[in-house]
Amino acid sequence: MIDGFLALYLFMLAAFTGHEIISRVPVILHTPLMSGSNFVHGIVLVGAMVALGEATTPLQQIIGFIGVFLGAGNAAGGYVVTERMLEMFKSSKKPAAGGK
Amino acid sequence: MNTPQIVALLIQASYFAAAVLLIMGIKRMSSPVTARSGIQWAGVGVLVAVVVTFFYHEHAAANTPLLIENAALIFVAIALSTVLAWYSGKRVAMTSMPQMVALYNGMGGGSAAAIGASALLGFASMAAAPKFVPSMPHASLSQVALAVIGALIGAVSFTGSLIAFMKLQGWMDKTFRFTGQQAVNGLCFLASVAVGAYVVYALQVQGGVNVMYIVAFFALALLFGILMTLPIGGADMPVVISLFNAFTGLAVGFEGFVQQNVALIIAGTVVGAAGTLLTRLMAKAMNRSISNVLFSNFGSGGGAAAEIKGSMKPIEPDDAASLLYLAEKIIIVPGYGMAVAQAQHKIWELSQNLIKREKEVKFAIHPVAGRMPGHMNVLLAEAGVPYDLIADMDDINPEFPNCDVAIVIGANDVVNPVAKTDKSSPIYGMPILDVAKAKQVIVIKRGKGTGFAGIENALFYQDNCKMLYADGQEAANKLIAGLKAMDGGGGH
Predict the structure, then answer these.
(1) DSSP character at residue B466
(2) Model-level pTM?
(3) ipTM confidence score
(4) Which pLDDT tens digit goes with each residue over B418-446?
(5) Which residue of A83, B148, B290, B391 is surrounded by the most CB atoms within 10 Å?
(6) What Cα–Cα distance (Å) separates residue B173 from each residue in B167, B168, B176, B234?
(7) Which residues of B are catalytic, by number?
């Protein structure tokens, strides 16, 4: 069981990690990065699956179904748009292998 | 160890691997060279976690079935949503990216809120049961409290992001204001916090809660998300979307704690912190504080700006082309107007033409060009512009005095020198691109209108500035033709 100070330490370390990872990012990547971090919290889908898995009443099943539906949209949509943005970033110094 | 226990161990190991992949994925996304592999690593992380969750059981015993309960329902929900989101994400135009991010982010927030709702209903039914179910330990105070807080944040992010999506998509009037709005919003927020606090108190101290209170709590939280986003104008939307992105991250982290899932706690909190920092960077680039964005209205109540003297001087495309023909160093300043006119491909064609003539061409990007910081880079990348020709404001500003011709296309407020000179101007203090210092400036514009902030642009009245009145694509075409015509005149 993660509780009390152990939980606080975990939150603190994860928060510092997030801050450090982002703090040196060039502006050109702000939009893809926002989209990418949007995808990363798509992991919420796992939590929603567990919630629906533990649902016993019809109300809980409906809420769980909505949760899984929304979480999957976050993950799938977030991935597609981020990947589409990032595949366009090219450097003029190193032409992509295979050419145009 | 029996089989279910081994499966449980493998699931935990997979969650750990997923958390590592997600963090390393974000890290790789922070450099243009590794960015694409970053999203792929993160993608593998989520995929692994989702697949193993089909075999998840909170308490593994020898007789537990292999698959998670309601596996079919889960599968249907994922399949439906993935198809819809994948299809919409593949089809959407690059200019519409910000609202798609808002939409998917809102879905994540809604999902976190649903987890919270499900957990609270579970706690309520547990408390109502005459005897404790031995397999379900009593929820701790922090679990109940974080279920409520995470649900509140997630619900606000859900409805708020949907409003942001509708505004950017043009489905909704830009702003919606009435007198006493802030008081109503404040009351709604306080009421949802109060009902949420009561739910925690009732569950923990009184040993049970009427489900109606949980419903009321969610209704208020969802309503607050709508109310707080309604008065915010389109120009501030990127900051708001980024803020909601951080909100969803936090909500996911908190609900992860409720479920005791470390992968959710870590990924959610990392995004929460990263998103908060990103929001502050964006707000700073726009010269707005976050509270300013949330609680006040752009441009309203600004004093009358000083009168600008002089006149705008039009230029013919051929004359503009001859300026380019003679120039050695050219800086192009694109704005959202260029993307709306879909002129980025033509502008890149023009730039390639100039580069072939051994001229130095650079693109100068203001931090808030486009609809989100970095959005213009994406739009230029889509047209094929290599990212090493694109310069940030701080790097390019010292180069303007040495620049022979600066071409401004579809940008307005971000090149307006009154941001530095006129204290009464609503954009005073906003960092700008020093286009005014270039030797010659060509502004490609459809008409004489003002920019988003509705302010006259002093740059347009300067002696070194010429106005090329045309649609972006048409202007670029004429400039290319003009350059070619001059080759002919040069005796080839």
Answers:
(1) E
(2) 0.83
(3) 0.91
(4) 888 887 777 777 888 999 999 999 999 88
(5) B148
(6) 7, 10, 7, 10
(7) 413
